[in-house]
From TrEMBL:
Protein name as it appears in the record: MFS transporter
InterPro entries: MFS, MFS_Cyanate_Porter, MFS_dom, MFS_trans_sf
Parts of the chain that traverse the membrane: 7-29, 41-62, 74-91, 97-119, 131-153
UniProt topology in membrane: Multi-pass membrane protein
Entry annotated with the keyword Transmembrane helix: yes
GO cellular component term, pick one: plasma membrane
Domain Major facilitator superfamily (MFS) profile: 7-200
Amino acid sequence: MKKNFNYILLIFMVSFNLRLGISSVSPLITVIKKDLALTNFQASLLTSIPVICMGIFAFCVIFFEQKFGKKSSIFLLLLLLGISTLSRGLFTNYFYLLFTAFIIGFCVAIIGPLLSGFIKQEFPENSGLLIGVYSLAMGLGSTFASGFALFLADYFDGGWNKSLAIWGSLSLISAIFWKNKISDDTPSSIMPVNQKIRLP
């Protein structure tokens, strides 16, 4: 039962990260626009590029799954997501923000379908429950990121870039937990597919 709960927690942690780097931007867009002297169009790209990437790069899921496997791909992309998000704290450059928005959108575009496929493959009898956990965690992550963005910017004395960056630490923590708790890519390596997951 404890093991099953750990898997649910891992799926929650990974899913929680999938909207942090996107939703944290919108509440700060006015501050960023003023600080960097951006036009409305330039500012809008900071939130629209990740969404566009999620559509464009969905086809890369097959490549990553065949090249690295679902589990290893999720780990690697979580690392990239965390590093790119954290690096926002080092720069206040518009084009670097665009670059990280692109990377974040790319990572999310692939992690989401991989995680969904991982759930359905490893836990077919409980996929509905875990897809619900996946969706709930994404929604909560989005809410937390948008809700705390301005507070964190004030906490860092107007450092909106640090407010954007801090969410990357959660991605790196999740990547470490995922790597330590999820075994390598082997068929049904986590548990027998006929074993049900039950909430504690």
